[in-house]
Amino acid sequence: MPPLATTDLPAIPAAQGDSPFARSADALPVPAQPVAPPAPAHAEAPPATDAARARLDRLMARGAAFLGSRYAVMGGAMSWISERNLVAALSNAGAFGVIACGAMEPPRLAEEIAATQALTDRPFGVNLITMHPRLDELVQVCLDARVGHIVFAGGIPPTPAIRKAKEGGAKVVCFAPALALAKKLVRSGADALVIEGSEAGGHIGPVSLNVLAQEILPAMAAEVPVFVAGGIGRGEALLSYLEMGAAGAQIGTRFVCASESIAHPRFKQAFIRGAARDALPTVQLDGRFPVIPVRALQNEGTKRFMEHQAEVIRRHQSGELDKTAAQLDIEHFWAGSLRRAVVDGDVENGSLMAGQSVGMVTKEAPAAEILAEIMDQAAAVLAARAA
Ligand SMILES: Cc1cc2nc3c(=O)[nH]c(=O)nc-3n(C[C@H](O)[C@H](O)[C@H](O)COP(=O)(O)O)c2cc1C
Fold first, then answer.
1. Which residue has the least CA distance to atom 21 on ligand 1?
2. 50-263+362-386 CATH, one of 3.20.20.70, 3.40.640.10, 3.40.1190.20, 1.10.10.10
3. Positions of CATH 3.20.20.70 in the chain
4. Among 254, 205, 209, which Cα is nearest to 227's?
5. What's the 153 CA to ligand 1 centre distance in angstroms?
6. How far is CA 175 from the centre of its chain?
7. Cβ(251) to ligand 1 under 6 A?
8. Residue bearing the CA closest to ligand 1, atom 2
9. DSSP of 266-314, one letter per residue?
10. Which pLDDT belongs to residue 1?
């Protein structure tokens, strides 16, 4: 997650845009599909052998050791979704669940951590948004509860927060949106990095994981474990990044429809129906009024956001609103919108944050099954190579 502004967080200006290209999937020209598309090389892959699984384990060993989990897969923290149930389910399944603190106040976070600990004895982490006004207290809550890993998201974490987390015994994971920042974060004490490409759901940076991985893995993978995020939907992709030097992956979108996820059934249904090209980043109408890109499924709300921006800009031009008021007005449009969609099920007006891998979400299934599928796909490639 890059430096962000979101309305689902406290005292933080909100910004989610919408795309002028938003159209229903039916309206888009779809290139004709060949009746029988050529099978990928691994389509006939034999089922993963024990040797292939052992090889996959070796590729994930460093990341898994860092996380203390069976697999080097972090559950991407998703506000309102990554709470006790999904986090514990992921950790129990062998991945590494991460609680999304989002706008929670310290006592609420303490409660959520305790509830998660009651559901799993496996390790899990907590994702803290760096501009939370009570960041220091939230770090303390994690330390008091002996949470082993703190993930700082939404901006460059203040050095004192990193120091406090480490001195308290937690490992620190930071998001690195560029190579220079990756180096700086490691100098500041980050024990591991997440590189999140623009394919991801939620607040995104401008660069794809494909490019970030090429820029950052060769330079940083030897120094600290680097986890890749954004658009990872299948095991083949996970494997390819492991082979490039990634320690593991952070996956969000694929876990939204886990049976254990408390997301509203209508939110899950939108994911099951959604295709990659429906998950678009917001677009700002006017450079004077920045909108931080958020990747989400297009809906009535995204359409109205475009109209809202246009109307606010018109009022600014007519002298009715000064620049600050206009910017705030645009930012407030999405206040509470993710909660509205995830918790209340208002999938028309709420924010349907989703990554491009949403097209690979085809049904609701237990977290363990989704994870096993990804591992099977990765191991099958290794088995096919050895055959
Ligand atoms: C609905 C949703 C909410 C998210 N909320 C957060 C958040 O609160 N904090 C954060 O650091 N990242 C957040 N993310 C990003 C995920 O943690 C993760 O990095 C991302 O989902 C990975 O990309 P993928 O969705 O393509 O798997 C969110 C993503 C989604 C889809």
1. 252
2. 3.20.20.70
3. 50-263+362-386
4. 209
5. 10
6. 11
7. yes
8. 78
9. HHHHHHHH--GGGEEE-B-S-TTS----EEEE--HHHHHHHHHHHHHHH
10. 58
Structure tokens at 160: 């004192």
Q: What is the pLDDT of residue 46?
A: 60
The pLDDT value given to residue 26: 29
Reported as type and span, the H/E element at residue 151 is: strand 149-153
Q: Give the tokens for residue 63.
A: 């990341």
Helical ranges in 74-134 per DSSP H: 84-92, 106-119
Q: Tell me if 358 CB under 6 Å of ligand 1.
A: no
Query: Which of 270, 268, 255, 263 lies closest to 301, judged by CA?
Result: 270
Helix H or strand E segment including 186: helix 179-187
Identify the three-state secondary structure at position 26: helix
Atom of ligand 1 nearest to the CA of 75: 17
Query: CA dihedral defined by 121, 122, 125, 126, rounded to 10 degrees?
Result: -30
Q: Which residue has the tokens 């509860």?
A: 145
Contact 77, 6 (CB under 8 A): no
Protein residue whose Cα sits closest to atom 28 of ligand 1: 78
Contacts of 238 (CB under 8 A, 6+ apart): 73, 232, 249, 374, 377, 378
Q: Residue 386's pLDDT is what?
A: 87
Q: What is the pTM of this model?
A: 0.89
What is the CA(78)–ligand 1 centre distance, in A? 5
- For the chain, which ranges sit under pLDDT 70? 1-46
Give the tokens for residue 333. 């449009």
The pLDDT value recorded for residue 283 is: 85
Do the Cβ atoms of 249 and 330 come closer than 8 Å?
A: no
> Is the CB of 367 inside a 6 Å radius of any atom of ligand 1?
no
Beta bridge partners of 352: 297
